[in-house]
Design brief:
3 helices, mainly alpha
Length: 64
């Protein structure tokens, strides 16, 4: 799975409606292991708190 595909699935799982701030195509050159780590965390959670979503968005922002 590509970084872009993982980012799309992360955004889907977190119910991010405004995707203008996080564009999956911008993560093609990001560290694949970091994206995978975030992806695994999000996908293994049954739900995410607002503070977790905020933290994940912040982490994603540091990867681009």
């Amino acid at each position: 799975m590509t970084n872009e595909q993982m980012i799309e699935k992360i955004l889907d799982k977190m119910n991010i409606i405004n995707r203008g701030a996080i564009k999956a195509e911008e993560y093609n050159r990001a560290d694949a292991s970091a994206v995978k780590e975030i992806y695994d965390y999000v996908m293994n959670r049954s739900s995410l708190s607002i503070s977790e979503v905020d933290g994940i968005v912040e982490e994603l922002g540091q990867l681009t």
